[in-house]
Amino acid sequence: MPQKIAFLASRAPLAQTARAALIGRYGEVSAEDADVIVALGGDGFMLQTLHETQQLPAPVYGMNRGTIGFLMNSYAESDLRARLDAAEEAVINPLSMRAIHTDGRESRSLALNEVALLRQGPQAAKLQITVDGRLRMQELICDGALVATPAGSTAYNYSAHGPILPIDADVLALTAVAAFRPRRWRGALLPKNATVRFDVSEPDKRPVMADADGTSYRDVASVEIRSEPSISHKILFDPGHGLEERLISEQFT
């Protein structure tokens, strides 16, 4: 049973109040010294916590004090140590993004949900798609396109009519956002170890931004995306409410 707990909370008053109550009940250590990290907030704060603690050995157990809470467990002050002891662990790998801007600068980022390319102005984006060095689509005219992990497949990917992926699937979802040409193209399923490259056509006339889990990079000329197996994030869920069950349940709602 984990004895040392670190409590992290979003800025929301509801989350801050919960953090104070839990510290008063269970005590607290720093995230660096913790056996487990409890994140209090919504999915956005959970993603932030996972990014900020990726170098630490402690798994993260989220409790929902936000809006959506797909990655979170229900909130309760009682029996926390017993819940942590019984929790099931899911391990996910992030996506690695390398973007080249139109001025030659390079940006790198990691994303647990998805990396998306989105039009930056009023005109549709024109994208060229290459997978593992082979040109697969000469021109995709669209509002954008994204590559999503299984863990992120129920987020923006699903809203863009992409597929929900089982958490243990060794695939990535490549999904178009409001495709104009080819009009009915919805995307593709790719092996997890695939490298996807987007090249932006007419970037001055049709500027495009890249977004990695909510962090935006404007005026990109090309973006390369691949899974990063060297980084593993450990997330804890209450029994029967893990990511696999949530991904299945989401398809029947």
UniProtKB/TrEMBL annotation:
<feature type="binding site">
    <location>
        <position position="178"/>
    </location>
    <ligand>
        <name>NAD(+)</name>
    </ligand>
</feature>
<dbReference type="Pfam" id="PF20143">
    <property type="entry name" value="NAD_kinase_C"/>
</dbReference>
<dbReference type="GO" id="GO:0005737">
    <property type="term" value="C:cytoplasm"/>
</dbReference>
<keyword id="KW-0547">Nucleotide-binding</keyword>
<keyword id="KW-0963">Cytoplasm</keyword>
<dbReference type="GO" id="GO:0051287">
    <property type="term" value="F:NAD binding"/>
</dbReference>
<dbReference type="GO" id="GO:0046872">
    <property type="term" value="F:metal ion binding"/>
</dbReference>
<dbReference type="GO" id="GO:0003951">
    <property type="term" value="F:NAD+ kinase activity"/>
</dbReference>
<dbReference type="Pfam" id="PF01513">
    <property type="entry name" value="NAD_kinase"/>
</dbReference>
<keyword id="KW-0808">Transferase</keyword>
<dbReference type="InterPro" id="IPR016064">
    <property type="entry name" value="NAD/diacylglycerol_kinase_sf"/>
</dbReference>
<feature type="binding site">
    <location>
        <begin position="154"/>
        <end position="159"/>
    </location>
    <ligand>
        <name>NAD(+)</name>
    </ligand>
</feature>
<keyword id="KW-0418">Kinase</keyword>
<comment type="function">
    <text>Involved in the regulation of the intracellular balance of NAD and NADP, and is a key enzyme in the biosynthesis of NADP. Catalyzes specifically the phosphorylation on 2'-hydroxyl of the adenosine moiety of NAD to yield NADP.</text>
</comment>
<comment type="similarity">
    <text>Belongs to the NAD kinase family.</text>
</comment>
<dbReference type="GO" id="GO:0006741">
    <property type="term" value="P:NADP+ biosynthetic process"/>
</dbReference>
<feature type="binding site">
    <location>
        <position position="143"/>
    </location>
    <ligand>
        <name>NAD(+)</name>
    </ligand>
</feature>
<protein>
    <recommendedName>
        <fullName>NAD kinase</fullName>
        <ecNumber>2.7.1.23</ecNumber>
    </recommendedName>
</protein>
<dbReference type="InterPro" id="IPR002504">
    <property type="entry name" value="NADK"/>
</dbReference>
<feature type="binding site">
    <location>
        <begin position="43"/>
        <end position="44"/>
    </location>
    <ligand>
        <name>NAD(+)</name>
    </ligand>
</feature>
<keyword id="KW-0520">NAD</keyword>
<dbReference type="GO" id="GO:0005524">
    <property type="term" value="F:ATP binding"/>
</dbReference>
<dbReference type="InterPro" id="IPR017437">
    <property type="entry name" value="ATP-NAD_kinase_PpnK-typ_C"/>
</dbReference>
<keyword id="KW-0067">ATP-binding</keyword>
<dbReference type="InterPro" id="IPR017438">
    <property type="entry name" value="ATP-NAD_kinase_N"/>
</dbReference>
<feature type="binding site">
    <location>
        <position position="151"/>
    </location>
    <ligand>
        <name>NAD(+)</name>
    </ligand>
</feature>
<keyword id="KW-0521">NADP</keyword>
<feature type="binding site">
    <location>
        <begin position="113"/>
        <end position="114"/>
    </location>
    <ligand>
        <name>NAD(+)</name>
    </ligand>
</feature>
<dbReference type="GO" id="GO:0019674">
    <property type="term" value="P:NAD+ metabolic process"/>
</dbReference>
<feature type="active site" description="Proton acceptor">
    <location>
        <position position="43"/>
    </location>
</feature>
